[in-house]
Design a protein that fits this description.
Radius of gyration: 25 Å
Order of helices and strands: HHHHH
Helix content: 55-70%
Structural class: mainly alpha
Distance between the termini: 63 Å
Largest sheet: none
Length: about 150
Amino acid sequence: MLRFTRLAPFAVAVALGTAAASLPGAFAQPAAPQTQAQERPSRIEGRIAFLRTELKITDAQASLWDNVAAVLRENDRARRDAFAGMRAARDQKPTVLERLERREKMAERQAASAAKLRAALEPLYAAMSDEQKKTADELLAGGRHHGRMGHRRI
């Protein structure tokens, strides 16, 4: 009797699995995973909305914030376009010089994006309260200990 008790849950699971498999359309199949060629949707609008809420942007700061949001969108689009180009070229075997050139161009794009963002953020930051600045310093921090694998947060 003891052996039957141990096997009973297994037998029930097998029976239910077999019955479920025999019913066409009874259970929805999970969505197919994204292939590497598919681009993930941008999440920049959600990030912008989150930042605006957390930073407690006032009506007086709205036009300054709109400039920052426009730069965030522009930087996101440029980054996504650059990655799409890299994905398209990944099947080619680049030489060491080509890899270094790509790395250099990526660093230049990142520096240009950071400069645009800083230029847009400076007037807003100057108009922020101390509490807003503290929140901005926490949320917009980049560097080694913030974000995923040291990537910038915004």
